[in-house]
Specification:
The protein is of the alpha/beta class. The protein is 21% helix and 21% strand. The protein is built from seven helices and 36 strands. 32% of the residues are buried.
Length: 574
Amino acid sequence: MENPKMENDIQNSQTTYQWKAQETRNSSVPLSLSNSRCGGQKTRSNSRPTLFSSYLSKGEESAKRDHRNVFRGPKNDGREVWGGLKWFWMWASNIQTIYLGYNQISGNLSQVLINSTIFDADSNRLVGQLPHLSPNVVLFSIANNSLSGHISSFLCQKLNERSKLRILDLSNNALSGELGHCLMRWQSLTHLNLGSNNLSGEIPESIGSLFSLKAFHLHNNSFSGGIPLSLNNCTFLGLIDFAENKLTGNIPSWIGESTHLMVIRLRSNEFFGDIPQQLCRLSSLIILDLANNRLSGSIPRCLNNISAMATIPSAIDDKFSTLNFSIYLGFLRSSFGFREDLILVVKGRKSTYTNILPLVRIVDLSCNNLSGGIPIEISSLFGLQSLNLSRNHLMGRIPENIGGMKYLESLDLSNYHLSGEIPQSITNLTFLSYLDLSYNNLSGRIPSSTQLQSFNALDFIGNPELCGAPLLKNCTENEGPQGDENVEGSERSWFYIGAATGFIVGFWGVCGALLCKREWRRAYFKFLNNIKDRVYVVTALKWSWVCYHFRRYHMISMFGMSKGLQPGRKGGKM
C-alpha cells in the first residue's frame, strides 16, 4: 500500500527510499535511516541499525498496518532535506526514540516541537535556533552543529507541565547570551553540557536549584566572575568542567565537601590564591586540572589522601559509572546509553576521552605561580598516569622515590628551578612514554635505562650540567665522581648537624634540669665536692708515695756510692 503524498515528498527531496515490509504480531514500528558516510555513533548498550525507534498505538493511522517498516536512505550529501520532509515531523511527534547522529543532515529546526523521549542529532549541519521541547523529553542532545541564537530563549520557553529532561547537551554550537535564572525550570537535569559556545556573563545562583545535577560542562565559553556558592547545593555533582573561560577569584574551599566529585577541570581561567587543602578530602577524585591560572603558594602535601589516585585503577571498582545514563526501551528489549566525555591535555596534546575516562588518573598544575618544592607525598599517588607541574617557580630536587609511581605514562617537570641529579628510581617507570625535564638546573649523569635513553635530547635540554645519552654531552671522569663528592659533602653536613644537635640537647638537658630543680642542684654540687675531695686525697697520697719512694731511692743511691769509694782509698795508702 503506497502513500501518494509520501511519494510526492520523496520525489521533491530528490532522494531514493527502499521500503521493506514484513508482517508482525504487534504494532512496533522501528524505523532506520542509514548513511554510508556515518562517522561514528552514540554509545549504546545494544548496537542496532535503527536510528529511529517508535511505539505507535493501534489507534493511530500510521500503525494501522501491522508491518515492521525499515526506512533506508537518503544518501544525503549535505543538501537541505528538512524542507521536503515536513510530513516527517508531524509523524515523528509519536516516535519515542530518534537518533540521527553523525550524518550530514542540514536544515532549521527552530519551528519544530520535539516530543520524543530521546532525541539525538549530534554532529550534523543543523542551523538556526534551538527547537521547542515538550515536557516529555528525557534526553536532548544536538551537539556539534551550527545552531545559533540566545540560550535564554530556549531555557525560558514555556512548559505546560514540569519537564522530565535529564540530559541536555548543546555543546559545540554558536549559542550566545547569558544563562539567566531560567535554569530553575529544569530541576530534573542530571547532565548539562553547554561547552564550546559563545556564552557569557556570570554563572547564575539559580544553578543551585538543580539538586540532581551530576555533570556540569561550561568549558570554552566567556563566563566571568567566580564559582557561585549555590553550586554547593548540588550534592550529587561528580564532574565540573569550567575550563577555558574568564572565571576569577579563589577556588572555593567548600568544593572539598562535594564527596561525589571525581573530576575538577578549571584550567585556562584567572583563578588566584592558594590551592585549597580541602581538595585532599575528595577521596574519589581522579582528574585534577588547574593548569594555566594564577595560583600561588605551595602544592598541598596532603594529595596522597586522595585514595582514588593512590590506588591502581580498576574497572571493577568504577565509581564513575554513576555519571552514566541509561534508559531501557522495553518494546525493543534494549537500552539507550549516554556516557560522559572530556577533553584532556595529556602528553602535550588535546584528546577526547570517553570509554576509558573512568580509568584515567591525572594531576595538572602547570602554568601557575606555585612555589616551594615538589612534596615527596605526591610520589605516593601510585595510580597516577599523568603528572604535569611544569612552568611554575618550584625549587629543590626531584623526589627520590618517584619511581614508585609505576603507572606513570606522562611526566612534565620542565621550566622549573629544579637542581641535583635525576633520581635513579626513575628507571622503574616502565610505562613512561612522555618525559620533559628541560630548562632546569639538573646535573650529573642521566640514569641508564632503555626507557630514558629512548627519549629525545630536547626533553633534557636547558640543563648545562647534565650529561649522558640521549644528550650529546658525554660524562667525563671528573664529572663522574662529582656526584660522589656531593654525596660525601652531604653526609658530612648531616654529621655536623647531628653532632651539634646532640651537644645542644645534652647540654641543656643537664643544665636546664639543674637550673629548675634546687634539690638536684645541691645534690649535683655535693657530688662534685665529694669527687673533688676524693681526687684531692688520692692525688695527695699518690704524690706522697712518689715523694717517699723518690727520697728512699735517692738515699740508697747515695749510700751505695759512699761505700764504693772506701776501697779505693785504702789501696791508695798501700
